[in-house]
Amino acid sequence: MQGTLEVLILRTLIFGPEHGQGIARAIQQTSDDELLVEHGALYPALQRLEAKGWIAAKWGTSANNRRARFYTLTKTGRAQLLRETTKWRRLAAAMARVLGPEPERG
Amino acid sequence: MTFRRRRTHDDFSDEIRAHLELEADRLAADGMSREAARDAARRAFGSVTRVRERFYETSRFVWLDQFAQDLRYAWRSMRRNPAFLVTTVLTLAVGIGVVAIAFTVFNAYVLRPFAVHDPRSLHQIGWRSRDAGGESFRWRDYEQLRRRGDLFTSVLAESTRFVSSNGRPLAAALVSGSYFTVLGPRMAAGRGLGAADDGVEVAVLSHQAWVRLFAGDPGILDRRLDVNGRPFAIVGVVGPDFTGLGDMPRDVWVPLTTYASMAQPDLVGRDQPRAVTIVTRLRDDVTAEQARSALGSFVAGAIEGEEDVRAFVRRQDSPNPLSLDLLAVLSPVFAAFVLVLVTACANVSNVMLARAVARGREIAVRLSLGASRSRLVRQLLTEGLLIAVVAGLLGLALTAVALRAGTVLVFRTLPPSVSAIFRTAPIPIDHRVFLFALVVAALTTLLFALVPALRASRLTLVNALRGHGGDAGRGSRLRAALVVAQVAVSLVLVIIALTLARNGAAVGAVDLGYDARGVLSINVREGQTRLVRGLAEAFEVEPGAGDVAVTGGNPLFIRSRPVAAAPAGAATAVATRFTFVSPEYFPLLRIPIVGGRGFQPDEARTGAAVAVVSEATARAFWPHEDAVGKTIRIERPEGRPVVDLPGYSEVRIVGVVKDVVSGFVMDGPDAGHVYLPISASSPHALALLVRPRPGGGLGPEVLQRLFVRAAPDPQIFEALPLDDMRALQVYPLLAASWVGSLLGAIALALSVSGLYGVLTYTLSQRRREIGIRMALGATAGAVVRLVMRQSARLAGAGAAIGLSIALAAMMALSSVVRLQRITIVDVPAFAAGVFVVLAATALAAYQPARRATRIEPSETLRDS
To answer: In chain A, what are the domains?
Structure first.
């Protein structure tokens, strides 16, 4: 799901600038590998977000002294994230109502 | 969307490399071996190549890359088939060239703004009354307008007249002192005229005149120009792009205030005539409509002798400012030119269709290798665009050549007395024409390349490899439809051309009713009766002059004046026309007198109340009686002021003459005419007719001498052979028929070649079938009939459609235009058109039919 990945990237960047690998890691950790199977899939999404002007990129140095391209959330990106989050929350709530309570496991 | 600099591939690769290293670092930190960590990072990333491809495709300039690729590819495939390239480019170039010619002329006379400062704010002031209208005012009206500041920022006045410079006629713009300061045209040398030049004999030359008269002499500012025998100091030369505020280029500009000293009439004196046009620059906050209503009473006061005078204020930013009326008149003409282009497109489209089938295999392979259909269509359109752009440029070159040749042709074919004073506006191929040609090229691409491209992209690999051209059946139907349309269009154009040519010939052969050969017509501007008398006296004593007659208006020069007349005692008068003529008029023109007699000299001298009427008038008033001796009543026609009626109202008829053509040749002989007697000293004498004695040596030099003796202002423009007047009247019709014939011929040639192409193509498809037929005993004649039948079906359908379109168009036209000597629905022209087109198409079929008979049955059967 394209839109999902983009929201996740924006969400990750809210904590500050991060490079591609960092973003991939963060998404994998928080979503239990569900939403990002291959790291490579991240880059077209980054490309799109950059084209839309929601994130900006700049080469910098990583914590362990490697050159990396760091992405930051722009002002319009932040506004977009807010819109998307609201939308997703509402969608998730609606889906939850439709699907009913989670069945007991066991 | 922002257009940032494109991110390079290398930069992107660096980022991916950094990602892999960072990931490997992290994994190694978790305790993996360096080697294993690197592999794991790669695995987690997925396909690097795919990500790179995605990056490439999302970058915004892919289409440009692909376009360049398509262009390269198109160029390669064209080079492989130069015959195709040459045919299509030439065909389209002719089509685009034809349309570009029409547009270039339209641009020069309508679209191209005057090369002056801010042409958009220029407005001309004019008037309309119930019976007339015009743009002429008096000098004092200009001076009055110049003083009011509420509507205009500036005002200028101009009167364009012909002057004589060492015996050669020059178009002179007599201008107000404000002219050059208001317009600010670019000067090639020296300065423009200014307010300080009032009454000073200085002149500014046009660029053309500088080159023509002074061979572009760089020391021009030290030289003088002879204007009506007076040496005017040349103070400047205007740049080549400004030729005056009108469509006839001016040769020279002089202060209007100098005219009184060199010629009549006095434009600035007490009895100044209405002879200047007034152009203003409207203030920014004033609209043309506001100016019009504000000027109402001023204009009404300036134009006396007319009823219901209203003002108009019209944009004057080009020789003929664009208006809906103008477009309505011109669009049928444009349509004829566009039809030729459409025919050319049909031809190229036809060739492209055939080629797409021939390339079926290549296209199918590309499709199966993963080219998307849209990409393939784009590729084929790019090929089309390449052809169209090359053709467009070639078309522009054709336009330039054709316009030059056309101008020369016009000068060669005009009567010599007219071509001496005729000037065409510069007809440049400027940025507008260039842009137009490019747009047309792009549009034609869609017209001729889109359908073949879409069709080609629908090919399936299996069919193509098997040698079937996809939906070949539908393809050939489309091609047949194109040929039918071409034949229809060319028939319409051929019929138009033939109708014009036949009418031109008919009008040229109209019997004028008098012998115009060698007769010289000298027309004098109103208010110059003194000049008429002077000239008449000068001719009287000139041995070569022969016969001289004086008239109130010469035949073929203008429609004679309307008047109402009735037999004395009858209640209602009918509209007819009248002319003042001297007794020499009938013998000079050799107009037969069929009853009674002509005028006597003493009747002319005293302005006696007698008349000679035309046969038509006599017949209308007294169908069964002799008109001689009867009396008719002359009155003003209903509501129309006729200022120069004679003082009497009842006249006795002394003679009846044959009907003649007095006005426009296209009108045919007069429906009625009343002649009244005058002599050279009459105030109604405004023109002369001279029949030189054969071998009397009344050449231009002698005429010039006589003119100068009679008046200081020779007004050469007004002396024209009657024959030339007639030729000039027929000329537009002739010129139109030439243009029409050219368009018709091009369209016909295109459709013949289109038909030829289709026949050849279907023949190649049907080789096997024909071979079998021949093997089974079909004769050569039967095979020829087979091909001819196909050709006849296409041509017949096209001719039927063309015929009905032409008929409908001509009937519509004939309900609008009514001229006695013009036949619009001309049956012989229709018949000849159908014959020409059918004969041409039969000729196109002949060669393919012959080739069909030479098919070797054994060979075709062995193939495949």
So the answer is: 2-99 (1.10.10.10)
In chain B, which residues have their Cβ closer than 8 Å to the Cβ of A19?
A: 18-19, 22
Q: How many CA atoms lie within 13 A of B278 on its CB side?
A: 27
Closest chain B residue to A65, measured at CA: B22
> Which among B2, B18, B50 has CB closest to A68?
B18
Is A44 an 8 Å CB contact of chain B? yes
pLDDT recorded at residue B597: 93
Residue A51 in contact with partner chain B when CB distance is under 8 A: yes
Distance from CA of B65 to the nearest CA of A (A): 19
The sign one gets for the Cα dihedral B141, B145, B151, B155 is: positive
Distance CA B800, CA B797 (A): 5
Judge whether B53 is closer than 8 Å to chain A, CB to CB. no
- Residue B45 near residue A43, CB atoms below 8 Å: no
Decide: helix, strand or coil at residue B150. Answer: coil
Helix/strand number for chain A, H first, E second: 4, 3
Distances in Å between the Cα of A33 and the Cα atoms of A27, A28, A36, A37, B44 are 8, 5, 6, 6, 11
pLDDT at position A1: 44
| Ramachandran bin of B7, using left for φ above 0, alpha for ψ from -120 to 50, beta for the remaining angles | beta
Per residue, what are the HEC states of B817-840?
Answer: CCCCCCCCCCHHHHHHHHHHHHHH
> Which string of DSSP letters, residue by residue, matches B585-614?
HHHHHTPPEEEE----HHHHHHT-SEEEEE
Is the minimum CB–CB distance between A67 and chain B shorter than 8 Å?
yes
User: For testing the chain A interface, which of B45, B48, B60 should be mutated: the one with the most A CBs within 10 Å?
Assistant: B45
Do B26 and A25 count as a contact with CB atoms less than 8 A apart? yes
CB contact under 8 A, B15 and A39: no
Grouped pLDDT means (10 residues each) for chain B, 864 residues: 59 88 88 88 84 71 73 81 85 94 92 91 89 84 88 91 80 93 93 92 94 91 89 94 89 91 77 87 90 89 82 90 86 89 88 77 75 80 88 94 91 83 82 92 85 74 54 66 90 92 87 88 70 82 82 81 79 83 93 92 89 92 88 73 68 93 85 90 86 74 71 58 87 89 92 85 80 84 85 91 92 78 86 92 86 78 60
pTM above 0.80, yes or no: no
Burial class (CB in 10 A: 0-12, 13-18, 19+), B404: exposed
Report d(CA B565, CA B570) in Å as an integer.
10
Kindly state whether A24 is in contact with chain B, defined as any CB-CB distance less than 8 angstroms.
Answer: yes
Question: Which residue's structure tokens are 């990056």?
Answer: B55
Mapped onto helix, strand or coil, the DSSP state of residue B285 is coil
SS3 content of chain B, % helix, strand, coil (to 5): 55, 15, 30
Distance CA B515, CA B466 (A): 78
CA B59 to chain centre: 49
Interface predicted TM-score (ipTM): 0.85
Whether residue B219 lies within 8 A of chain A, CB to CB, comes out as no
Helix, strand and coil content of chain A, in percent to the nearest 5, comes to 60, 15, 25
Min Cα–Cα distance to chain A from B36, Å: 17
Beta strands in A11-65 (DSSP E): 18-19, 55-61
**For B552-592, where are the E strands, in sequence order?**
561-567, 574-581
* Closest CA–CA distance from residue B461 to any residue of chain A (Å): 33
Query: What confidence score (pLDDT) does residue B611 get?
Result: 93
Q: Which of B3, B7, B22 to mutate to test the interface with A (most CBs of A within 10 A)?
A: B22
Cβ contact, residue pair B22, A21, below 8 Å: yes
Chain A closest-CA separation from residue B740 CA (Å): 57
